[in-house]
Write the structure tokens for this entry.
Amino acid sequence: MPASPITLAIDLVLGALIGPPGHPIETILARAEAGEWTPVLLDLALYCAMASVRPEDTVDHARFARLLRYAQPAASRSREPGGAFTPPTLEEIEHWRAVVLGEPS
């Protein structure tokens, strides 16, 4: 049976980068490694997650590398070809970080 594709939300991509141990992305990665799921990594989700990382964050490089190993990259089609993404707002970034870090938003 082929792996089922699952599209990752921005908070899950950010969770792969800076989430605490036991973050839900670890379950997704385990299922990807078992061949059950294929994480679909949208370019916009990657952009917004990367824009949400702060210099003082501890980045889990190994977990993020596991995500990239199993992820299927995909275009979000949210911009013109060759155009830039609109940067996320501070409010959006704070919301994603609160979800990932388990803080009130």
